[in-house]
Amino acid sequence: MKQGAFTFVLHSHIPYARRAGRWPHGEEWVHEAAADTYLPLLLALHDLRAEDVPFRLTIGITPVLAEQLADPLILDNLRRYLATRRDAAAADVARLDGRGARVAAWYRDRYHRLLAFLTGELNLDVIGAFRTLQDQGYLDIAAGAATHGYLPLLDRDSSVYAQVHVGVESYRRAFGRPPRAFWLPECAYRPARYREGPEGAYLRPGLERFLADRGIRVFFAETHTVEGGRPAGKAAGDAVGPYAAVPRRYAVPPARPVEPTARTAHLPYRVEASPVAVIGRNRATGLQVWSARHGYPGDPLYREFHKRDGVSGLHYWRVTGQETDLAEKDVWDPAAAFARTEEHARHFCELVEGLTTGFWERDGRYGIVAAAYDTELFGHWWFEGVAWLAAVLRRLARSPVVELTTAADYVERHPPEEALSLPESSWGQGGGHFTWQNVDTAWMWPAVHAAERRMERLAAAHPQAAGAVRAALQQAARELLLLQSSDWPFLITTGQARDYAVARFQGHLERFQRMADAVEAGAVDAAAVQELFALDNVFPEIDHRSFARREPVPV
User: Fold this and answer.
1) How confident is the model at residue 59 (pLDDT cuts 50, 70, 90)?
2) Is 479 tagged catalytic?
């Protein structure tokens, strides 16, 4: 008898990197993520489908990532990237000896298979492959904000609206249907709040109102925002992947504990008076993967992420031990590593079944376990992680007590019975905004806010723009969305790519100002607009009026 439901909630995102540099930062971010994560994931899901495994999962693909994965230039460069990796591995077969040569041959065959999959079975249509799996009922693809803008720190509701609206419209073009689920960037939530303006005090709505207006049924939040208590796991800094770098560079202000709410991440709740539900990330399942101390990725047999070959750039070593110096790492054994994923999948499935039956026995209700992760954690940071995901889905599909589902399907079949007021929050360090707003990023936000206000004025002054003026306004809107990306302050805070992030932020700001100056001066140069569009061509059908001023609710 089924006693509860489970869904993976995978959040897929890469910042806009088309024609914006090469390795280690720039367009090869997309190529590397596709080679390590998206293509292996699609290949694994196709294999499960061929085995008649009735798997289900929720996967978010941010609009800016979907646009890049559908871009002919990026896809052609991805094809070249896979061929280059294959050839580098083949050269390593001859250069290395013993175990190293055997691993190189394994890489050569892997890249050959991925290249054949991309150009043959997928016909260079990565987004189409995800769309087909959704149309066949295996996936529910969640929408997201246009460029992964950090919504609580935006100054104008016109920008919040534009991030959501442009994101949903991009989703419709990519997947041929309206979305039901939505991933708030960084799980960052803003409740309704009062503000003072020229008209006096007014009420800014909570983010759920923007989602409700676009027909969204469910979004996701960090555990402590639903259950109360202190942030734990990822939000407390115990994480593998890019978030692990945050606490090393700062004395992070201690998180404020949220009063226990007597609510549970096992159930959905309506957010305030809206029809939109929220589901909290399950903490126990999160720790098994995210935790740098307790998670599966730290197993000695798994591939070491931080050590590359100095000639080919390929990874030939295993974790060996978490305290083992990089110089002392042992050679990776793919067969042994992938065999270990089956053991960890069995352990994880037993955990999920225990959580599900435990909630059923305690509360007598059909709950859900939502295990939320960045998709790129699997395959990229944890190389064997895609195989682990497939093994978990294969096992849970035959579980007698757990139903595999998607978040949106669960909410439709088990609508929330209670409402909840969520606090301002994120899944960043400390559970708040620190990762994106701190001493090193404080200079960025006034520039963003000034550009927001300027875009509102442009939208008001040119509601019926046509020709070159309209094209310049569209480009200004694109540059503003790209300026608002949460990736730039994140990369500055973590120190992973500080100079690159500063340059990207300043570049988008300069391009926005150039377009705004031209429109305001009545001197738009069509060739200059086209030049910028060739560089930043995301959201080709964007309407600058998406940034029209949102009327406040007076109090």
Assistant:
1) very high
2) no
Alpha-carbon distance 505 to 441, whole Å? Answer: 11
pLDDT over threshold 50, residue 7: yes
Dihedral angle over CA of 63, 491, 486, 236, nearest 10: 110
Q: In sequence order, which residues have a C-beta less than 8 Å from that of residue 455 and are 6 or more positions away?
A: 158, 159, 476, 477, 480, 512, 516, 544, 547
Query: b vs e for 510-541, b when ≥16 Cβ sit within 10 Å of the residue's Cβ?
Result: ebbbbbbebbeeeebeeebbeebbeebebbee
DSSP 527: H
Q: pTM for the complete prediction? A: 0.93
User: Cβ distance 489 to 150 under 8 Å?
Assistant: yes
Unique residue bearing structure tokens 């280690």: 24
Q: Which residues contact 295 (CB under 8 A, 6 or more apart)?
A: 240, 287, 288, 289
Q: Which residue has the higher pLDDT, 431 or 517?
A: 517
**pLDDT grade for 236, boundaries at 50, 70 and 90:** very low
37, 379 contact by CB (below 8 A):
yes
- Residue in 374, 403, 479, 487 annotated catalytic: 374
Catalytic residue (one of 36, 157, 169, 186):
186
Q: According to the model, what pLDDT value does residue 253 have? A: 65
Tell whether the torsion through CA atoms of 376, 382, 384 and 390 is positive or negative: negative
Buried b (16+ CB within 10 A) or exposed e, 128-158: ebbbbbbeeebbbbbbbbbbbbbbbbbbbbb
Q: Answer whether 57's CB lies under 8 Å from 12's CB.
A: no
pLDDT digits (tens, 9 = 90+) for 307-353: 999 999 999 999 999 889 999 999 999 999 999 999 999 999 999 99
d(CA 214, CA 279): 18
**DSSP single-letter state for residue 234:** G
pLDDT tens by residue, 279-312:
999 999 998 997 767 789 999 999 999 999 999 9
Amino acid type, 78: L
Q: Is 186 a catalytic residue?
A: yes
Instruction: Output DSSP code: residue 241.
Output: S
Q: Is the pLDDT of residue 176 over 60?
A: yes
Q: In angstroms, rounded to a whole number, what is the distance separating the alpha carbons of residues 252 and 229?
A: 18
What confidence tens digit (pLDDT) does each residue in 96-147 have? 999 999 999 999 999 999 999 999 999 999 999 999 999 999 999 999 999 9
Beta-carbon contacts of 510 under 8 Å, excluding residues fewer than 6 positions away, are none
CA gap 11, 321 in Å, rounded: 29
